[in-house]
Amino acid sequence: MANPSAGENRKQAKPGDGAGDAAMQHDGARLDLFKFAPFRLNRLAAEVSAALASEYRERYGLDIPEWRVLATLGFRREPCSAQYVAACTRTHKSTISRAVTSLLERRLIERVENAADRREFRLRLTRKGKTLYEELIPRLQQRERDIMACLSTEERKMFDRLIGKIEASLDLIQTSEEADAKQAY
What we know:
- The chain has a single domain, classed as Winged helix-like DNA-binding domain superfamily/Winged helix DNA-binding domain (Arc Repressor Mutant, subunit A, Orthogonal Bundle).
- The protein is 64% helix and 8% strand.
- It has 9 helices and 2 strands, in the order H-H-H-H-H-H-E-E-H-H-H.
- Strand 1 and strand 2 form a beta hairpin.
- Helix 3 (37-60) packs across helix 7, helix 4 packs across helix 5 and helix 4 crosses helix 6.
- The longest helix has 24 residues, at 37-60.
C-alpha cells in the first residue's frame, strides 16, 4: 500500500497534535503589505514624489534626480559635492552623477573648485538655476499644502512630530545645520 502524501497527512492532523503546526504557523505568518509600515511609507513617498514631479517635469523638463540635485543645492548656502547630494537625498551616486551631467549641460548648475582640495569640485546653482529654483519653490510648497489639506492643522503638526521621531530613531539628520555641523555628508 502506498504511503499517504504529505498533503493528506496535513489534512488528517488534528489541532494541537503537532503534525500540522508548522504548516499552520507558516500560513499564519502572512504579511499584509497594506498594514506594513515600511511598505506604506515607501508607497506614500513614491506617490508624493510623483505628484510633485509633475510640477517640475512639465514646466521645466526636470526629472526626479535632477530636481533632487537642484533642491539640495538650492537650500544650501555653500557649494557641496555630488556625494553630499547622493547621501542627503538617499539616491544612488550614479543616478546623481547623470543628473549632475544633465544640469551642467543645461547650465543650471556649475562646478567650483574646493578651496581645501583643488582636486575636488563642488556644485552650486548658476544664476539661471537660482531663478528656476526660486520660481519653482512656491509652486511646490503650494502642491505640498494641497496634498496635506486632508489633515487638520493639529494633525499636520502631529504628522511632522511623528516623522521626526522615526527619523531620529533611525539616526537620520533632520536639518541642513545638523548636517553641516556633523560634516555628515
